[in-house]
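Deliverable D4.2, example record:
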Amino acid sequence: MDFVPSVLVVDDFLTMRRIVRNQLEEIGFRDIDDAEDGESALRKLRSKDFHLIISDWNMQPMTGLEFLKEVRSDRRLKKLPFIMVTAESKIENVQAAREAGVTNYIIKPFTAEVLRKKIAASFAAA
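Output generated by the structure prediction step:
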């Protein structure tokens, strides 16, 4: 495989970052980086090319939705596939994420297979 997609996992809980990283490795991803908040994620996004963002919704000080809006407002990053992960299944949250330009949405807890399908759909949509 010539194309090796790089993934940025953003979550303020180390345990959740590790879970997502392990699931990504389980489905074949090798180039995985992570960030503990939106600010550090934006710094990483501006210093390296990534092919996918997987971000938690509930983060401080910048929420996942605020982070998504920052990514979408950046000319270089705006088309980057972005998967929002959350324990919240409220329809207004899903709608807010869609309006902000999220590529896909995953409700916790989820399996590696669910993650694989959402990633495949996100790359297909990009």
